[in-house]
């Protein structure tokens, strides 16, 4: 008010003739934009609390707008994508997805983007919450070892994606540069008991899903939209086993769900839950109730809320199911508390349905532990063989659960008359080379397993030589079978020979 008066007074003195000619209402019109830092609506200043997924900063209790200072640092880091698989991620805040930012509608956000001196690339940030050119990208282009600053007014409430927008943009997003910023409406969101941050994205690696080592980015696969990985929160298993989301019966849960893409649209679903309320596309209007699967577009979001009525493990998936069970888009919400048999009675997670994901901690952590144990042994003395075999068995177990169990069954018992058993199979154990050949090329024609005739067709299995070595070592050492290790070299040799046949 004061400012308006002052403005009018100054204007009056300078442009008296004009003002006299103008309509009286012009006199009381405030200036279009206040000089920076003197906006009467902005009271005080605070530093934003930023959290790594799946955590969300606490709800904002403030009843007024303020200046919020956000410090976000870009780092290029090698991190785990899956067991045995590493990737050079480009990150916001050292995390994929990037740190969660939470501000209030009307806040003035002063954004500081740093690019760590060890970075190889320049980066910037486009926040979909920004009204302005490039969503901030044009003002935040930052070379390694530099930092940029820009400010924006959070005009529209909603759940927004932010991402790097440096060319080639798809590659920067494909390497992990995205996150979520929530602009809370002035009156806040309804209170819930737990809030979580879940963000889906794809990765395009030279190697197939699970192929070990440091995997480079594959531009061709990215252009063809053929990801090797589709994951929640930046890696396979980041919401599985010990990392599962946790809540209790009776609680209301809100998920802030983002999808970075860069290409795919997500069909977000939780097995065994119904979303009581959905804020579609991350807008602030409660748009749907009682939803099974909600679409989350690339570069978009959704907010889902539900009450937990019964205990158990609820599985988060992209319901485009091969992404869930073969590319990693699978997470878990573990709910503890008393049963309510009137709502649901029955056993919990089905182990076969989830394969290896259902194990407490997953075999994932087991493989990682064994690998580090092996490195230690190598350092001390070359007692490697036994441990190498154990690692093959653990990895093979995972492949079995993904590839073979559908036919040969969870315990290798087969199906009478249709699929021969692998458990205590004389046929399997009699000839290692034949078994390798059978998995590479598939098998058909009559065969006798434990005295019973089978005459079916096993299609060739699309696995790498390494994976075949792992799975055969596993089946030859599971369910009463005892055999030696099947080495990668043995598989490679037979593979090479079979190509010439
Ligand atoms: Cu970038």
Q: Can you walk me through this structure?
A:
- The protein has helices at residues 2-14, 16-21, 24-27, 137-140, 169-174, 219-223, 321-326, 351-354, 362-380, 385-408, 426-430, 432-441, 465-475, 488-499, and strands at 42-47, 65-82, 85-92, 101-104, 108-115, 126-127, 146-153, 158-163, 178-184, 194-203, 213-214, 229-232, 245-248, 252-259, 266-271, 275-279, 288-291, 293-296, 300-307, 312-318, 330-336, 443-444, 447-449, 452-454, 457-458.
- The strands form 6 sheets. Strands 1, 2, 3, 5, 7 and 11 form a 6-stranded mixed beta sheet that branches. Strands 12-10-14-19-16-17 form a 6-stranded mixed beta sheet.
- The chain starts with a helix and ends with a helix.
- Residues 1-35 and 359-363 have low confidence and may be disordered.
- With 501 residues, it is α+β, with helices and mostly antiparallel strands.
- Copper (II) ion (CU) binds at residues 90, 123, 164, 166, 172, 177.
């Amino acid at each position: 008010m004061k400012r308006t008066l002052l403005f009018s007074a100054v204007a009056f003195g300078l442009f008296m003739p004009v003002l006299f000619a103008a309509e009286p209402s012009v006199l009381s019109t405030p200036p279009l934009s206040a000089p920076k830092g003197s906006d009467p609506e902005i009271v005080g200043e605070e530093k934003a609390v930023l959290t790594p997924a799946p955590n969300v900063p606490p709800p904002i209790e403030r009843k007024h707008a303020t200046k919020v200072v956000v410090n976000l640092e870009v780092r290029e880091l090698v991190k785990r994508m899956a067991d045995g698989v590493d990737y050079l991620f480009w990150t916001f805040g050292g995390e994929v997805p990037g740190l969660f930012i939470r501000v209030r509608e009307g806040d003035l956000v002063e954004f500081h983007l740093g690019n760590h001196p060890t970075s190889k690339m320049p980066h910037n940030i486009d926040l979909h919450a920004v009204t302005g050119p490039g969503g901030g990208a044009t003002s935040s282009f930052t070379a390694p070892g530099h930092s940029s600053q820009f400010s924006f007014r959070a005009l529209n409430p909603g759940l927004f994606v932010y991402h790097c927008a440096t060319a080639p943009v798809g590659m920067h997003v494909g390497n992990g540069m995205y996150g979520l910023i929530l602009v809370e409406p002035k009156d806040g969101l309804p209170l819930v008991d737990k809030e979580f941050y879940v963000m889906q994205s794809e990765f395009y690696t030279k190697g197939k899903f699970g192929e070990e080592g440091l995997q480079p980015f594959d531009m061709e696969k990215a252009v063809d939209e053929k990801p090797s990985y589709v994951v929640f929160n930046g890696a396979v298993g980041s919401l599985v086993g010990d990392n599962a989301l946790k809540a209790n019966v009776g609680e209301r849960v809100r998920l802030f769900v983002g999808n970075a893409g860069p290409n795919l649209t997500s069909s977000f679903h939780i097995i065994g839950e119904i979303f009581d309320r959905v804020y579609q596309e991350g807008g602030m209007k409660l748009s749907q109730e009682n939803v099974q699967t909600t679409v989350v577009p690339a570069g978009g979001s959704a907010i889902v809320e539900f009450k937990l009525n019964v205990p158990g493990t609820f599985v988060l998936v992209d319901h485009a199911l091969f992404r869930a069970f073969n590319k990693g888009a699978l997470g878990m919400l573990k709910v503890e508390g008393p049963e309510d048999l009137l709502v649901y009675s029955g056993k919990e997670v089905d182990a076969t349905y989830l394969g290896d994901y259902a194990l407490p901690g997953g075999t994932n952590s087991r493989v990682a532990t064994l690998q580090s144990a092996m490195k230690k042994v190598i350092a001390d003395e070359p007692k490697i063989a036994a441990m190498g075999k154990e690692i093959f068995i653990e990895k093979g177990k995972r492949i079995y659960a993904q590839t073979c169990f559908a036919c040969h069954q969870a315990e290798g018992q087969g199906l009478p008359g249709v699929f021969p058993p692998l458990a205590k199979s004389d046929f399997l154990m009699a000839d290692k080379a034949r078994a390798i050949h059978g998995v590479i090329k598939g098998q058909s024609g009559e065969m006798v397993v434990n005295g019973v005739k089978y005459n079916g067709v096993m299609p060739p299995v699309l696995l790498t030589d390494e994976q075949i070595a792992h799975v055969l070592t596993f089946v030859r050492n599971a369910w009463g079978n005892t055999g030696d290790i099947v080495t990668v070299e043995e598989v490679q040799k037979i593979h090479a020979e079979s190509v010439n046949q």
